[in-house]
Design goal:
CATH class of the largest domain: Alpha Beta
Helix content: 10-25%
Shape: elongated
Radius of gyration: 28 Å
Strand content: 25-35%
Distance between the termini: 56 Å
Order of helices and strands: HHEHEEEEHEEEHEEEEE
CATH superfamily of the largest domain: NusG, N-terminal domain
Oligomer: single chain
Structural class: alpha+beta
Strand order of the largest sheet: 12-11-10-9-13
Number of helices: 5
CATH topology of the largest domain: Alpha-Beta Plaits
């Protein structure tokens, strides 16, 4: 079906003689020019009365740093084309992460897969063409040139992170584990080396055992004050 869409169709009017073609009126020419120049798709007559098939989740490759605006543009084009029944959610996969900046903890959104969005849709000739013709969208991901639906497990992970509770601050992304050898890069004990003893992910603090006057001493530091060795 999809391959058929990419093949050009023959012009049925090729066999007509030039003197048999009736000239278009000014009003008809103006209307035709407006239709061709429009950037939004017209409602598809083929979609009217089409029996609904099964919807699946698909991954779309899009321009990086434009995921949100491309999602919004796709939603507008779906509405203009009257194809809302063939689409459900369109998601920019994100996760909420905590970070410290200027000594203050804050929760921010971070894209899970920059350059990709996911859409729950029925794949048919009309929806395939609309998606492919939306500016900023490259193509469906898949193998052999065919869009491949996402597995239920992958969908669950993405939806859970994207639609998770926002009233609870997620744990900080601290890239250290107990026993790691680290170097202090800022503060009173700058340039000291030691081993990670404990991690407080809720507050972003790490306890490091360093050697002071020949004795192993615990020092509590902000996680950004140390670096791995």
């Amino acid at each position: 079906m999809i391959d058929d869409m990419e093949n050009s169709t023959a012009d049925e009017s090729d066999g007509l003689a030039a003197d048999e073609a009736a000239p278009a009126s000014p009003a008809e020419s103006k209307a035709a020019t407006k239709a061709v120049s429009s950037s939004d798709p017209a409602p598809s007559e083929a979609a009217e009365g089409r029996p609904h098939g099964e919807k699946h989740w698909y991954i779309l490759k899009v321009q990086s740093n434009r995921e949100d605006s491309i999602r919004d543009a796709l939603q507008r084009r779906i509405a203009v084309a009257g194809l809302e029944d063939f689409f459900d959610e369109i998601i920019v996969p994100i996760e909420m992460v905590s970070e410290f900046k200027n000594g203050k903890k804050r929760v921010v959104k971070r894209k899970l897969y920059p350059g990709y969005i996911v859409v729950h849709m029925e794949l048919n000739e009309d929806t395939w063409f609309l998606v492919r013709e939306t500016p900023g969208i490259g193509d469906f991901t898949g193998s052999g040139g065919k869009p491949t639906p996402m597995s239920p497990q992958d969908v669950s992970k993405i939806v859970a992170k994207t639609e998770g509770p926002s009233d609870e601050a997620p744990p900080l992304q601290i890239g250290f584990s107990s026993g790691d050898r680290v170097k202090i890069k800022e503060g009173t004990f700058e340039n000291f080396e030691g081993d990670v003893d404990a991690i407080d992910r809720a507050n972003g603090r790490v306890t490091v055992m360093i050697n002071i006057f020949g004795r192993s001493t615990p020092v509590e530091l902000e996680y950004w004050q140390i670096e791995p060795l």
